[in-house]
Each structure stands twice: as C-alpha cells, then as structure tokens.
Amino acid sequence: MLSRWGRHYMPTLVLKLKNLILKLDKDCHSSSSSSSSSSSSSRNNRRSGGVGSSNSSSSSSSSSSSSSSSSSSSSSSSSSSSSIISFCIRIVVVVVVGAAAVGAAAAGAAAAAAAAAAAVVVVVVVVAVVVAAEGVEEVVVLAVVVVVVVVVAAAAAVLVVVVVLVVVAVVIVVVVVVVVVVVVRLVVVVVVRLVVVVVVVVVVVVVVIVIAAAAAAVVVVVVVVVVVVVVVVVVVVVVSASAVVAVV
C-alpha cells in the first residue's frame, strides 16, 4: 500500500515540491531584484544628492565669489574715486602754488623796476647837484655812473621779467601734465587718450611759443626803454653841465 501510495502520490508531491522550490526561487529573485533596484535607486539618490550637494556647494562658492567680486569692484570704485579726489586736490595745490609763485615773481619785478627808477632819479639829482657845485669834469664820471646804474637796473628788470615768464611757463606745463595724467587715468578708451595727449601737447607747444614770444617782446621793450633813458640822462647831464659852465 505504501509503495502504491508512493507510486501514486510521489510524482505529484515531487512536482509540488518542485513548483514550490521554483516559486520560492522566483520570489527570492524578485525580492533580490527589488532590493537591488531599491539599493541602486538609493545609490542613485545618494549620487544625485551628492551631485546636488556639489552643485549647491559650487553655487554657494560661485555666489561667494560673486559677492567677493562685487565687494572688490566696490572697493576698486571707491579707490578710483579717492584717487580722483586726490588728483583734483593735487591740481588745486599746483595751481595755488603756481599762482603764488607768479605773484611773488611779479612783486619782485615791480620792486626791481621801482628800485631802478628810484636809482635813476637819485643819480640824476646827484649829477645835477654835482654839476651845479663843481663843474663839467665830474659830470663825465657821473654820466658814466648813471649809464652803468641804468643798465644794471634794466638788466635786473629784464632778468626778473624773464624769471616771471619762466615760472608761468613751468606752472602751465605742470598743470597741463597733471590734467593729462588725470584724464589718462579716468578715460578708458585708447583713442580718446591719444586724442587728449595730442591736444595737450599742441596746447603746451603753443603756450611755450607764446611765452617765448612774450619774453622776447618784453626784453626788446626793456632794452628800448633803457636806451631811451640812457640817452635822456646823458642829454640832461650834458645840457645841465653846459648851462652851469655858461653861468660860471
């Protein structure tokens, strides 16, 4: 009976066991695949999370770099504005110092001219007094003295005028150079820089030529005035001497 039951039910039992084993194996495979997919998805999520974190870190670093660049640009703009202010202050200082120098030189020239005129007047008075007291012989010596005094005074006046013109030229050139430096630092376009430099160079050349012409004209005028004064003094001395001799 057992053998009969075994022959009848054993294949069915084996088949059921086989089916059960296959089912268990299939369930295991499905569970492992699901677990592997979940693990892969978690890995992917972790990877995506890592990429997101790296992206977020890169975005945060880029935002920090942008903030640092904005702060550096603001600091550079503030430094450029401070440099502009310092250059303007320098221009004002140069102009004020140049004006003071020109005023001092003009005052010196006026003082030299006044001293020369006073010396001429004093010498003429002394010559007249000596001629009236002594005679003609001392007149020649005093005339030479008068001529020397007038020539020295005129030379001093010419020298002072030339110094004044040189100071004016130097002040103009310094101011122009400072302005050129400011413009070149402020202007970014190269063509504009070249145009500004060319214009400034032309202006400086014209100013120097005008100052040189003015200096030459002043020297000529002073020389003419000196010659006229010397001639007048000599004529006055000679006439005074002849009048004194005629009276005596």
TrEMBL record:
The chain crosses the membrane at residues 84-106, 112-132, 139-159, 165-187, 194-215, 221-247. Residues 30-43, 53-81 have a biased composition (Low complexity). The keyword Membrane applies. It comes from Elysia marginata. Residues 27-81 are annotated as: Disordered. This is ABC transmembrane type-1 domain-containing protein. Keywords: Membrane, Transmembrane, Transmembrane helix.
